[in-house]
Amino acid sequence: MITIISGTNRKNSVSKQVALEYQKILADFDTESTIIDLEDLPGDFIATALYENQGTNEKFNPLREHMKKAQKYVFIVPEYNGSFPGVLKTFLDALEFPDTLKGKKCALVGLSAGIQGGVMALSHLTDIFNFLGMHVHALKPKLMRIDGMMNDGKITEESYIQLLKEQAQAFIDF
Ligand SMILES: Cc1cc2nc3c(=O)[nH]c(=O)nc-3n(C[C@H](O)[C@H](O)[C@H](O)COP(=O)(O)O)c2cc1C
After folding, report:
1. Which of 7, 58, 68, 103 has the most CB atoms in a 10 Å sphere around its CB?
2. Cβ(14) to ligand 1 under 6 A?
3. 164, 21 in Cβ contact below 8 A?
């Protein structure tokens, strides 16, 4: 079972669409997955689920528990201001430390409107996950100019689909 995290809370995000596409690819490889969409974070989570309030937000706790129990994660990461979205870091800051991600495995997919494909976002996130003791798969597809490569919620660029399939197959065996 793989947990796919759509890494932004922006409504109707491309990240969510790519997360759904990734789920289909995993299903084609007979691998079950579930999606955590940061759009579903409770609106008050910054004020009520962090620091001295850790573990007390009843709407956030199921996500926190899910992240703690899961073993393998795929993060779909849009590039925001040359890095990954702040809400994703806040989500990570609200997880139980140090056990949630330690010794676990993840794969990263970058998306951007511009030409970087989230390369720096993935680099920054890799540093954080390695700091937390999580193993990051070396294949990290960087899907640049993603907005022009999608139609009706589906990825139309064949080379992008190929990159995701290669990563998914390698990550299943990781
Ligand atoms: C707050 C914000 C900052 C962004 N910064 C960048 C950026 O630095 N570089 C870039 O190429 N695209 C940037 N974008 C565009 C997103 O990377 C692009 O739309 C992405 O493919 C999908 O994001 P989404 O999942 O929010 O739809 C930004 C978007 C937002 C909302």
Report:
1. 7
2. yes
3. yes
- For a substitution probing ligand 1, which of 79, 84, 144 has the most ligand atoms within 8 Å of its CB? 79
d(CA 96, CA 16): 24
Cα–ligand 1 centroid distance for 44 (angstroms): 23
Residue 21 confidence (pLDDT):
98
pTM equals: 0.98
Specify the 3-state DSSP secondary structure of 70: coil
Token pair, residue 6, equals 């759509």
In contact, 78 and 108? CB cutoff 8 Å:
no
Q: Domains of the chain by range and CATH? A: 2-172 (3.40.50.360)
Please state the rounded mean pLDDT for residues 80-90: 98
User: How high is the mean pLDDT of the chain?
Assistant: 97
For residue range 102-116, what is the model confidence (pLDDT) as tens digits?
A: 999 999 999 999 999
> With left for phi above 0 and alpha for psi between -120 and 50, is residue 15 left, alpha or beta?
alpha
- HEC string for 89-130: HHHHHCCCCCCCCCCCEEEEEEECCCCCCCHHHHHHHHHHHH
Q: Whose CA is nearest to atom 29 of ligand 1?
A: 80
Q: Are the beta carbons of 14 and 150 closer than 8 angstroms?
A: yes
